[in-house]
Write a structure and sequence with these properties.
It contains 7 helices and 7 strands. By secondary structure, it is of the alpha/beta class. The protein has a single domain (21-134, 144-240), classed as 3-Layer(aba) Sandwich (Rossmann fold). Strands 2-3-1-4-6-7-5 form a 7-stranded mixed β-sheet, with helices on both faces. Strand 6, helix 6 (202-208) and strand 7 (219-223) form a beta-alpha-beta unit. The chain starts with a helix and ends in a 7-residue tail after the last helix. Residues 1-22 form the signal peptide. Mg(2+) binds at residues 38, 56. Residues 107-155 are annotated as: Disordered. GTP binds at residues 31-38, 78.
């Protein structure tokens, strides 16, 4: 009889402790279209990766559970018409996650400034170094249907974005974090698709996107692959470690 009562109190204690020590976070995932945001969110929430994803129209909300932590994730569309929504959903979150497609060819002129110790870099299991942008052809390219070109690129696992996407992403990121309502919110930049040959390294991302110039907030940059689940565990640990909303 006493053992049964002891077991009951033990179970009750564990339940109350889970309530008292549970954490509820809220993050916002933003970035240009086709950067890999939804693939990442789906992987975190369901543990599954899909090669083909439907572009996010507006926003999606998912919940990610890790141990005693529940993370509410806002996945916001990256098309130009949705970027004005970013600030609204980033207000009051525990962290802003900015996703960039690291398989996009690097711009020909890269910043020569080095990274600083204020940027946290996650190790990556891939050994491929970044490749320079391909040389321009002197002959007129063969005309190709845009739809078939996009399909071919997706089938090959490569990006359909041009090197100018780096400049656009950098401009959008800095414009976002300069908003007064987002002051001090931790920033995590994720360079996705590092499984693709020639993907930009973390140092490249830091330099090109001028992450080492961002002050008055925590900034981290990881190189990840949703397809091969590279550094996804590191990303999740970083998110879980953020302070709860309203703390």
């Amino acid at each position: 009889m006493s053992s049964g009562i002891g077991s009951l109190f033990s179970s009750l204690f564990l339940y109350l402790r889970s309530l008292l020590f549970s954490k509820h976070l809220e993050i916002c995932v933003v970035g240009l279209q086709a950067a890999g945001k939804t693939s990442l969110v789906n992987l975190l929430s369901s543990g599954q990766f899909a090669d083909e994803m439907v572009p996010t129209v507006g926003f999606n909300m998912r919940k990610v559970r890790s141990g005693n932590t529940t993370i509410k994730v806002w996945d916001i569309g990256g098309q130009p018409r949705f970027r004005s929504m970013w600030e609204r959903y980033c207000r009051g979150v525990s962290a802003i996650v900015f996703v960039i497609d690291s398989s996009v060819p690097l711009p020909s002129a890269k910043s020569e400034s080095g990274s600083t110790s204020t940027i946290t870099q996650a190790p990556t299991s891939t050994k491929s170094a970044s490749a320079p942008a391909p040389a321009a052809s002197t002959t007129a390219p063969k005309k190709e249907d845009p739809a078939s070109a996009s399909a071919s690129a997706l089938a090959a696992g490569s990006s359909t974005q041009s090197p100018s996407a780096w400049a656009v992403a950098t401009e959008e990121l800095h414009a976002l974090i300069e908003r007064p309502h987002l002051a001090g919110v931790p920033l995590l930049v994720l360079a996705t698709k590092n499984d693709i040959k020639g993907a930009a390294r973390v140092d490249d991302v830091i330099n090109i996107m001028k992450l080492d110039t961002i002050a008055n907030r925590e900034v981290s940059c990881y190189s990840i692959s949703s397809k091969n689940q590279v550094n996804i565990d590191v990303t999740l640990k970083w998110l879980v470690a953020r302070s709860p909303v309203g703390k």
